[in-house]
TrEMBL record:
Name of this protein: Bifunctional NAD(P)H-hydrate repair enzyme
Cofactor(s) demanded: Mg(2+); K(+)
Superkingdom, taxonomy of origin: Bacteria
Binding site for AMP: K410, G411, A412, D413, T414, G439
Quaternary context: Homotetramer.
UniProt binding sites for K(+): N63, D123, S159
Gene designation per UniProt: nnrD
Residue intervals of the YjeF N-terminal domain: 15-213
Keyword Secreted: no
Recorded family membership: Belongs to the NnrD/CARKD family.
Amino acid sequence: MSKDLSQLLLTPAEMAAVDAAAAASGIGSFGLMEKAGAAVAAAALRRHPDAFRFVVLCGPGNNGGDAYVAARHLQQSGAAVALFHLGDPAKLKGDAARARAGCALKGLELGIYQPETGDVVIDGLFGAGLGREVPVEVRALIGRVTAAGRPVLAIDLPSGLDGRTGKVLGAAFQACSTVTFMTRKPGHLLMPGRELCNELEVFDIGIPARIIRAEAAGLIAENTPDAWKGLLPAEQLETHKYKRGHLVVFSGEADKTGAARMSATAGLKAGAGLVTIAAPRAAISANAAHLTAVMLHAIDDEVDLGGWLTDKRLQTFVLGPGFGIGARARGFVSALADRHLVLDADGISSFKDDPQQLFDLFRGEPRLVLTPHEGEFARLFPDIGSDDALGKVDKAVAAARRANAAIVYKGADTVIAAPDGRALINTNAPVWLATAGSGDVLAGIIGGLLAQGLPTFEAAAAGVWLHGEAGQRAGKGLTAEELAAHVLPL
């Protein structure tokens, strides 16, 4: 895959526009299909050298055309090939019809296929453009192949998977590998699509990058350092702690102080120059017993907070981990409306009855980061969260626009979205990162990056990526305390 395109994710509609633009520029569309099918055949032979038979499933569109080309190449290589088609192949048009005409194999109706020992299935039924539930006969076939445990190599995307959202449309193949062309789709990275695609290969079939970039909105990409490293603060010899920012993390009551300490430690490790835990006076001793580099400040109520905020160096805050749900949280957030704030956990839930109250506080230049998991997202954005027509990226972007905030929609496929429509899908988080307190660490990392001057979207995206890297370093069986200790600055 071209490095120029390595992070870009194209929706199926954008990829269709790319294909049309390539054809309009004089690039032969059948030549592209020929290259795609040849790449599939090569991948099948390389990955399954001991296959007894390649079973090629051909759909009614261009994905089926790719499959016919692959079948021809496999047969010419000397492999045993069986071909099955969905619908009447005589109705194929354009390049797909030409691909079928060039394949000497006689196909059989899809419903006839019964998996046999030694079969490797090549799925060329639908690809990424499917927008409806799979037909009954395809659902039944997927069930037979799955029950038999036959390996599946998917062309473009496992059939039954929505290339835009990663959702399963009734049923979908579980591929052992997936071959796609030029760029990935969001469905390759979003769950459950990422698991169903399994190992993904991207082949360059000769469409110039300039055409792809001209047709792509460029709003969706994978979350990698290339997306935000250009905005990182420059390292300078003449610096001091306040130039690297002062992060404040609010603590809960005396029996709920651990979450704030994990956030504070993570913020310090992420590079903030100073970190202070603002705690109720009754919780000062509990916090002090565990802190060294992190400072403490007593804050009991909004009056205390208002007086402290006269210090304009205090610009970045984390509120939520272990804080408690209720009016006190809402009052503190109101007092912080002109500052940069990461609102997590209890802070989010405190606005579940009137989310608009929160959103109205943070108009203008984005300065709020919200870090909801699935349940918290549904509480803040009930109509968006329950809209089954939307994928996770769509939901995150809609929420970011409504809240005028950077949204970190957490999960195995965490999506970071900005009010301007940009979205990044994160992929570097290990499964063992799902542990109690992990979200507190993430909130602190994002806060530490905000304190150093990163804009909200970039701070959120970089924080999510650093969180995943820390999880990789900490390894399986990590605790949140260990996770925080493994955070490294950018």
